[in-house]
Amino acid sequence: MGFATTNAELTFNFGEANVLIVDENAGFMDVTSLMLSSFGFRKLHRCPSLGESHAFCQDLEADLILVDPFPRTEEGLALIRDLRGRQQPTDPPLVVIIVTGHTPRDLIQKARAVGADYVVAKPFSPATLLDRILWSASPATERSLGGENPGQAGHAAETVDPLQQAAQALLQ
User: Which of 2, 46, 131, 150 sits a CA distance of 20 to 30 A from 36?
Assistant: First the structure.
């Protein structure tokens, strides 16, 4: 598995994490792959369709999934629901982030209901993506419930520390 948590600190082995990017836009997958590679992710898998991602997820034990559910929103949400439904309490955590140009409130509510960790609006910066990955991968007990960010269930008010920790880990 790509990451584990110990001693209330986040340890996320980017180099070993299996990452699945699901998006019909090949250009977006190229840009996202470059961002993730710059963070240290090495095991990047790409699916150009939601239909293909269902089969792919049967064979891949993913640690991080970035998915754009549009234009077939219900199919994208079903993918997340299926993944969460197969998880056992003893399984390592799976981070699921929806990345989309369409963020109506009802999508965010549905995404939360099926188990997405975060919804990120396109376009986004590398710093934003890294922050959302680190927040989503952190233990639930360390997530602050402050703020009313519609993209998640309680984003930590101060995200510099995990971001700095990740940057330092990548430089070592």
Answer: 150
